[in-house]
């Protein structure tokens, strides 16, 4: 048995101070559905847990003003059941209802969902068996040339091909969300695409956070296009499983012509992936399934597959094309 210190914080500022006082080896814990799992697997071994599960005001969801605001401590289940979000931003609701199970969503927070670690087989099952640059920097990557069916095909590097696991961050990426954080130097806001780092040569540094910074919330600029949106997810098992391929699509249409498209991909990349090529190809087009598929394929032109995950290129494109047609079929 390993002993550890435990502090329950009452405010975000108190949590940041407790993290700093702990002097290294500390971790924030919220719903615990990912961190406790990793502690049991021996992947995370914190010396100090800072419990942020009941911070004052941390579960606030606010739809007034020009931005939607989701406190980092809001439960996935509560946000999934929010009637106004469901009506005006189905892409957000669906990214939550298709993530994990009801029991997990009752525990897990939207902030923790952003920060969950990859499900890469070699990352999770490998301590003492397989090398993993994310787990042990510089040790190598057993997934490259190994069982790579679940691995990423976009945004990979010679050091890491692990998929970014969350569904919610993909929907947030399509909506140009920003992550609100607090550290010892005060608050700051990080655009969502910058929040998630590409693996490059340092896959163990996954987020653009300084040590001790806490996520306090997520803000999403409001858009009329939100109603014409969807999160479409393909997985091995419909009841609950991580994405093999997914797409978040937000469309602005004039009749059958696409005025603008905001698109992000999940299950195929090392971070939530903005599909700019598809966005550009769709703009101004009268929409047909054929055109949606051509645009979707353009976003996979730079994909690079290993031995067993080449199927994700076509699956990803077809998933995106279907998502575009689902979103287009919704009324604004
Ligand atoms: C069987 C199973 C199936 C799942 N399927 C899916 C799925 O299909 N799709 C999906 O998206 N997810 C899935 N998940 C993952 C689940 O959604 C995450 O475990 C959950 O969202 C994490 O939230 P949490 O509050 O429990 O985080 P915790 O476990 O408490 O924390 C996770 C990480 O985030 C850090 N952290 C948490 N909150 C903050 C904060 N405010 N600021 C800074 N750091 C923070 C912690 O230090 C830790 O490193 C699944 C999980 C399981 C166990």
Please give the structural blueprint:
Blueprint (H helix, E strand, L loop, with lengths): L4 E4 L3 H11 L3 E4 L5 H6 L7 E4 L9 E2 L4 E5 L4 H5 L2 H6 L1 H8 L4 H6 L2 H6 L5 H5 L42 H7 L3 E6 L2 E6 H4 L18 E8 L7 E6 L10 E10 L2 E10 L6 E2 L1 H7 L6 H10 L12 H18 L4
Parallel strand pairs: 1-3, 2-3
Antiparallel strand pairs: 4-5, 5-8, 6-7, 6-8, 9-10, 10-11, 11-12
Helix pairs in contact: 5-9, 11-12, 12-13
Bound molecules: flavin-adenine dinucleotide.
Describe the structure.
It is a single chain. The protein has 332 residues and is of the alpha+beta class. It has helices at 12-22, 35-40, 76-80, 83-88, 90-97, 102-107, 110-115, 121-125, 168-174, 192-195, 276-282, 289-298, 311-328, and strands at 5-8, 26-29, 48-51, 61-62, 67-71, 178-183, 186-191, 214-221, 229-234, 245-254, 257-266, 273-274. The strands form three sheets. It has a five-stranded antiparallel sheet with strand order 4-5-8-6-7. The protein has a four-stranded antiparallel sheet with strand order 9-10-11-12. A hairpin with a 6-residue loop joins strand 11 (257-266) and strand 12. The longest helix has 18 residues, at 311-328. The N and C termini lie far apart (56 Å). It binds flavin-adenine dinucleotide. Flavin-adenine dinucleotide binds at residues 27-35, 37, 52, 72, 99-100, 104, 107-109, 111-113, 115-116, 165-168, 214-215, 240, 242.
């Amino acid at each position: 048995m390993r002993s550890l210190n435990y502090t329950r914080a009452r405010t975000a500022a108190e949590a940041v101070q407790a993290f700093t006082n702990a002097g290294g080896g500390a971790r924030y814990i919220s719903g615990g559905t990912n961190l406790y799992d990793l502690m049991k697997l021996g992947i995370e071994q914190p010396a100090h847990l800072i419990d942020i599960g009941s911070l004052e005001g941390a579960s606030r969801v606010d739809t007034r003003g020009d931005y939607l605001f989701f406190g980092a401590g809001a439960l996935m289940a509560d946000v999934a059941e929010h009637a106004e979000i469901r009506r005006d931003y189905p892409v957000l609701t669906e990214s939550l209802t298709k993530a994990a199970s009801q029991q997990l969503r009752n525990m897990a927070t939207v902030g923790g969902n952003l920060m969950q670690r990859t499900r890469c087989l070699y990352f999770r099952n490998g301590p003492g068996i397989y090398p993993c640059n994310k787990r042990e920097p510089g040790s190598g990557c057993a997934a490259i040339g190994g069982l790579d069916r679940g691995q990423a095909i976009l945004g990979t590097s010679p050091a890491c091909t692990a998929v970014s696991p969350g569904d919610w961050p993909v929907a947030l990426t399509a909506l140009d969300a920003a992550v609100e954080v607090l550290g010892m130097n005060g608050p700051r806001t990080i655009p969502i695409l910058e929040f998630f780092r590409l693996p490059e040569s340092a896959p163990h540094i996954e987020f653009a956070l300084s040590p001790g910074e806490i996520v306090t919330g997520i803000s999403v600029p409001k858009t009329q296009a939100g109603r014409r949106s969807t999160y479409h997810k393909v997985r091995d098992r419909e009841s609950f499983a991580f994405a093999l391929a997914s797409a978040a699509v937000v469309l602005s249409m004039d009749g059958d012509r696409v005025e603008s498209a905001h698109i992000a991909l999940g299950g195929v990349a090392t971070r939530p992936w903005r599909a700019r090529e598809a966005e550009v190809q769709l703009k101004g087009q009268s929409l047909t399934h054929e055109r949606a598929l051509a645009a979707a394929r353009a976003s996979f032109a730079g994909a690079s597959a290993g031995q067993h995950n080449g199927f994700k290129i076509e699956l990803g494109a077809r998933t995106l094309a279907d998502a575009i047609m689902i979103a287009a079929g919704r009324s604004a």
